[in-house]
Amino acid sequence: MRLAEVDAPEHRQPFGDRSKQALAALCFNQRAEVRPIAAGGGLDRYGRTVAHVSCNGLDANAEQVRAGMAWVFDRYVNDRSLYRLQDEARASRRGLWRDTGPVPPWEWRRAR
Q1: CATH classification of 2-111 is 2.40.50.90, yes or no?
Q2: Contacts (Cβ under 8 Å, ≥6 apart) of 101
Q3: Counting Cβ atoms within 10 Å, is residue 48 exposed (0-12), middle (13-18) or buried (19+)?
Q4: Over the stretch 36-70, which tens digit does the pLDDT of each residue have?
Q5: What phi-psi label fits residue 65: left (phi over 0), alpha (psi between -120 and 50 degrees) or beta?
Q6: C-alpha span between 31 and 110 (Å, rounded)
Q7: Quick one: pLDDT at residue 42?
Q8: Which of 40, 69, 80, 93 has the most CB within a 10 Å radius?
Q9: Is the full-model pTM beyond 0.70?
Q10: Strands 50-55 and 2-3
Q11: CB within 8 Å of 23: residues ≥ 6 apart
Q12: Active site residue 107
C-alpha cells in the first residue's frame, strides 16, 4: 500500500525509520478505512494500491504531513490543503523539518 498524495522518506534516508514508526503508531492493529484512488486503476508502477487511509477516524496521509513525517508529493497532489499542513510542520520544525536541509524522497531516489 502507498499513501496517496504524500511521499515519505526512504528507509535509509534521514527520518525514514521514524516516519514508518509514526505511521505504525497511528494505524498498527487499528481498523483502517482504505479508499483507493481512481487514477491509474489505483495502483502504482510497483503494483501497490495507492489510497487515502484513515485509522481511528484520522486521515493517515494528512497526519504524516502534519507530523513532518512525509512531504506533499507535488507530482500527484490533488488535496491542496496538504500544503498548509506541510507549511505548518516546516514552520514548527516538526519531524524531518528539524534538519537544516531535508531532501525530498523523489530527489534522494534520483541521486541514487
Answers
A1: yes
A2: none
A3: exposed
A4: 998 767 899 899 999 999 999 999 999 999 999 99
A5: alpha
A6: 35
A7: 86
A8: 69
A9: yes
A10: parallel
A11: 3, 8, 60, 64, 69
A12: no
Q: Which of these is catalytic: 48, 84, 93, 109?
A: 48
Cβ contact 49:43 at 8 Å: yes
CA atoms of 43 and 93, how far apart (whole Å): 32
Locate 48 and state its grid cell.
501497490
Residue 41, classed as helix, strand or coil, is helix
Quick check: is 48 catalytic? yes
The three cell numbers locating residue 27 = 494505524
Catalytic-residue membership of 31? no
